[in-house]
Amino acid sequence: MADWEYPSTDSPTCMIKIDFTAEEIQHLNYERYHHPHPRVQRRMEVLYLKSQGLPHAQICQLCQISRPTLAKTLRLYQQGGIEGLKTLEYKGQSSSLNAHSDSVRAYFEQHPPRTSAEAQAVIEQLTGIKRSPTQIKAFLKRIGCRSRKVGYVPGKSSLPEKIEEQEQFRQTRLEPLSR
């Protein structure tokens, strides 16, 4: 007869039924605006709209997410509650410089670089890995190095001309003020 079949319960197009308490709705409403991470805010928004009885298609349209993302968010809530929505599984890529962090740190403890360009050259020489100065600064911060703020020490004024100039200044400018 028909060439179609009903969606399975694992399908993202199947309606997922969730019952919300008034306290959960209030918490979702607060967190959708006040949580520090925007992805968690969006998840809270999705669940809040779901608690208000909106259909999945409309939630996807309002939150600008796909149906599989909606289903994943709803499953996260079913498995972990509101705290489950706050978990972020993204780990990012690890830097290839991390394998050399101990040797680089030991070298820089003995020979601190003056600039990030100098650190960049030394790291390239030690590891063979070239990175931009911005990435070098971030790497050095991660391994515990910090930039050193240096100034200059003024030279001594023991020249006879300078001593004479200071004495003249003291007699003509400073002593008349103290009288």
From TrEMBL:
Q: Where is the composition biased (Basic and acidic residues)?
A: 159-179
**Stored InterPro entries:** Homeodomain-like_sf (IPR009057)
Please name the Pfam families in this protein's record. Answer: HTH_23
Q: From what superkingdom does this record's organism come? A: Bacteria
Q: Where is this region: Disordered?
A: 154-179
How is this protein named in the record?
Answer: Uncharacterized protein
Taxonomic lineage: Bacteria, Bacillati, Cyanobacteriota, Cyanophyceae, Acaryochloridales
